[in-house]
From TrEMBL:
Main location: nucleus
Species in which this protein is naturally found: Panagrellus redivivus (Microworm)
Keyword check for Nucleus: yes
GINS subunit domain: residues covered: 100-171
Gene3D superfamilies attached to this UniProt entry: 1.20.58.1030, 3.40.5.60
Name of the protein in question: DNA replication complex GINS protein SLD5
Role summary: The GINS complex plays an essential role in the initiation of DNA replication.
Coiled-coil region list: none
Gene Ontology CC terms, in alphabetical order: GINS complex
Domain of life according to the entry: Eukaryota
Listed GO biological process terms: DNA-templated DNA replication; double-strand break repair via break-induced replication
Length: 251
């Protein structure tokens, strides 16, 4: 397998190297060098790019199917963007005749396929932020206070703030300003996602039972066993924690 073939996602000679939770695309030779020169206090996790791409595909589908914004997966997005840049640079360095070959065409199609997955994932998140920027920023702030994984990327946070400011400014200029001051408060309705039902599949063994409200008696609850491979239709609030932990996937 030559260097050009090794750029293709899924090639055995490539791997994805994580250092301090920051992913770096590396070849097998780089991995060996890193292992030989690794400090005792540093931890590395080597993951093939094909595995990262498969995980990114699942993250994309989960985001598309979820009724609310999920945690931003920066490590997967950044890793694949780095790999895409490497592949695009490799294609650009080929001669015109080589770029017309079947091999190069397959590489170009792979680049387009991965680019679409990443772009649609980001577009889906932007649409959700536009729908409820206030709630997205509040949840992001709450996670920051608890030192938890942030909901938004820095770019998404900036977009949410600018989008909210622009929306409020337009509302005030076109509607609120002519009214008395008592009417100048901007209403912020809170979207409710908990009762929205989703289809999902259990991915792991040993997942805790799910508790869902009884359909006919609001004061009662039903306990549902979550066996690996089983599929269910339940309120999103009942499965959100399982989804964030990677124990299920949305369908």
């Amino acid at each position: 397998m030559d260097d050009f073939d090794s750029q293709l996602i899924g090639a055995d000679s490539d791997s994805l190297q994580f250092r301090d939770s920051v992913p770096v695309i590396a070849t097998s030779q780089d991995v060996v060098a890193a292992d030989n020169g690794m400090d005792d206090d540093e931890e590395y996790q080597i993951v093939p790019p094909a595995v990262v791409l498969k995980a990114m595909h699942e993250i994309w589908l989960n985001e598309s199917a979820a009724p609310k914004l999920l945690t931003y997966r920066s490590e997967h997005v950044n890793s694949l963007i780095d790999q895409l840049e490497n592949m695009q640079e490799n294609i650009a360095q080929r001669s015109e005749a080589e770029r017309r070959s079947m091999k190069c065409t397959i590489h170009a199609l792979e680049v387009q396929r991965i680019t679409y997955v990443i772009n649609d994932y980001l577009r889906t998140r932007m649409r959700k932020i536009e729908k409820d920027p206030v709630q997205a920023m509040l949840e992001d702030d709450n996670r920051a206070k608890k030192d938890e994984e942030r909901l938004l990327s820095p770019a998404e946070r900036e977009f949410a703030e600018k989008y909210y400011d622009a929306s409020v400014g337009l509302l005030k200029a076109e509607f609120h300003d002519p009214l008395p001051g008592v009417f100048h408060k901007v209403p912020v309705p809170k979207a409710e996602y908990g009762e929205t039902r989703v289809f999902f599949e259990v991915l792991e063994d040993g997942v805790d039972n799910m508790v869902v409200p009884h359909m006919q008696d609001p004061l009662s609850e039903v306990v549902v066993a979550l066996n690996k491979g089983s599929r269910h239709f339940a309120p999103f609030a009942s499965v959100e924690e399982f989804l964030e932990r990677g124990l299920i996937r949305l369908l």
